[in-house]
Amino acid sequence: GENVEQHPSTLSVQEGDSAVIKCTYSDSASNYFPWYKQELGKRPQLIIDIRSNVGEKKDQRIAVTLNKTAKHFSLHITETQPEDSAVYFCAASPPGAGSYQLTFGKGTKLSVIP
Amino acid sequence: ETGVTQTPRHLVMGMTNKKSLKCEQHLGHNAMYWYKQSAKKPLELMFVYSLEERVENNSVPSRFSPECPNSSHLFLHLHTLQPEDSALYLCASSPNGARDEQFFGPGTRLTVL
Fold first, then answer.
1. pLDDT single digits (tens) A37-68
2. CA distances, B37 to each of B67, B89, B93 (Å)
3. Which of B40, B55, B98 shows the shortest C-beta gap to A102?
């Protein structure tokens, strides 16, 4: 089955700096890669996702890049703000119209220092 | 409010108890999921139901028993649990499969004594 590794496990940045979180996956057939944000005591929420037919996707201050050859994808947050502090999870999903499997990484705790 | 609710929010039970977790979604989604979230571990997919049919069962011990009576409700029946089963149990739903956005409930914090 799929295995997703996520690094780093914790990350502290100064407000206004950029943050980068990296994930690698093992199943070369996986073709959907979402990122979820979980604030303390709250439920995970999707912030951005990318499918394997594109190499980069942006949404305001966040972006995700995908390198299919190397089997890794990254989350980039620019101009970080205190409200970006949360645990971020990457995930990968194998192909197949009926696939229900979503394999998550262990998460990265991001702290943005004011 | 994401439209996915879970009850109870907190549950403390002994190893010999039987209890049930409930999840409800009013988003019109076809797929519902149970995840286990433990400290320093990835979110672990336990069960998936699509249109009330179980489509995934990730080698979960039989002391966890899911039930999906209709597309809006999902239960997780618990019996003879172990202390290592203490965790946050999250329910989620999505329009169809895993490549749609999953909407999570607030979770049930379970403690097994």
1. 999 989 999 999 999 888 999 999 999 999 99
2. 20, 6, 16
3. B98
